């Protein structure tokens, strides 16, 4: 008797309101302790007090499918079917966020498509944080606007399959709903206006490519002739003769220098330089070989002296050991 729907309840989607929750989950709710102790004989007035005690939202969790108190209260609301004004007050409540989430989920289950858009879309402006429990029993943080968006877009929320609703564009075409205006559009417009102002200021400060091109002379266009005031005076015939004679002298000097270089680069001259280079290289090689020989001799002398000293040290050590056994003084202190 305690799990039956009230007599005056109206069928939703053509069925019993409690049938909106799947049978397996519904039976688990009936068997849980919270349903038997806290949800027994609840009325619409007492339901408010229980909703204010909620600490998180969620469906079922654990291996044995335990229901959360939030899901138990949703099923209790489907059972007693409170009035629409009470549900609207749940949604408009700004002090208790879990009461608002409970009313939003119930409105999504029993309300029409027009009521869902009318009462749930204003909650997009609520950015408060809520705790949510997943199927594994772990808790995570979500926001109220995320929860409302999942109610309007997803097919399953808190392990309850949501009824289908019509798309918003249909109501806009029928003039039943106004086009949705986001609260962020004003901020976006302010940001765009500020960005445009910055761009205009930057344009004033930095010249455009056309202005930059105006500062430089275009090489493709013919250059304008200079004004008669700044034209150079033509050279006199005496200056022209002097410049020609200077050019001739320079050409003669260049020819003489080239001829001298060719003479110096004759084959006999090249052979002489080669012989001198070969002699110089041989001399260097002999010096290097002499140095290497001297270094090898010095190394051999050092190794011989070190070997001799090591042999003497060994002999002295052996003699000292014998003297120590006999009780005599060592050779070297």
* Main structural class: mainly alpha
Q: How much of the sequence is in beta strands?
A: 5-15%
Radius of gyration: 52 Å
Strand order of the largest sheet: 1-4-5
Major sheet details: 3 strands, mixed
Using the alpha-carbon principal axes, give the shape. elongated
H and E order:
HHHEEEHHHHEEHEEHHHHH
By DSSP (H or I, 4+ residues per run), the number of helices equals 13
What's the N-to-C terminus distance?
115 Å
> What is the tally of beta strands?
7
Helix content class: 55-70%
- Show unreliable segments: 209-220, 229-234
Mean pLDDT: 79
Biased composition (Basic and acidic residues): 201-223, 295-324
Pfam families: PRP38
Region (Disordered): 180-333
Keywords: mRNA processing, mRNA splicing, Nucleus, Spliceosome
């Amino acid at each position: 008797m305690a799990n039956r729907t009230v007599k005056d309840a109206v069928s939703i989607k053509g069925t019993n309101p409690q049938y909106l929750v799947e049978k397996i989950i519904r039976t688990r709710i009936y068997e849980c302790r919270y349903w038997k102790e806290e949800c027994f004989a609840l009325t619409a007035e007492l339901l408010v007090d229980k909703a204010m005690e909620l600490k998180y939202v969620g469906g079922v969790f654990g291996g044995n499918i335990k229901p959360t108190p939030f899901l138990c209260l949703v099923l209790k609301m489907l059972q007693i079917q409170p009035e629409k004004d009470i549900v609207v007050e749940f949604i408009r409540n700004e002090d208790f966020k879990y009461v608002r989430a409970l009313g939003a989920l119930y409105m999504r289950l029993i309300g029409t498509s027009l009521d869902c858009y009318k009462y749930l879309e204003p909650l997009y402006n609520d950015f408060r944080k809520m705790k949510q429990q997943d199927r594994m029993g772990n808790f995570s943080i979500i926001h109220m606007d995320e929860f409302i968006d999942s109610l309007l877009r997803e097919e399953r929320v808190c392990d309850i399959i949501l009824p289908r609703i019509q798309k918003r564009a249909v109501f806009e075409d029928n003039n039943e709903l106004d086009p949705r205006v986001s609260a962020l559009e004003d901020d976006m417009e302010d940001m765009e206006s500020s960005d445009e102002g910055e761009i205009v200021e930057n344009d004033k400060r930095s010249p455009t490519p056309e202005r930059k091109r105006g500062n430089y002379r275009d090489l493709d266009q013919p250059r304008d002739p200079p004004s008669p005031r700044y034209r150079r005076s033509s050279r006199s015939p005496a200056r022209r003769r002097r410049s020609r004679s200077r050019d001739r002298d320079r050409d003669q000097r260049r020819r003489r220098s080239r001829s001298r270089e060719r003479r110096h680069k004759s084959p006999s001259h090249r052979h002489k330089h080669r012989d001198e280079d070969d002699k110089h290289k041989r001399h260097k090689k002999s010096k290097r070989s002499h140095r290497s020989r001297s270094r090898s001799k010095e190394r051999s002398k050092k190794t011989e002296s070190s070997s001799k000293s090591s042999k003497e040290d060994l002999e002295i050590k052996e003699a000292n050991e014998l003297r120590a056994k006999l009780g005599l003084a060592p050779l070297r202190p």
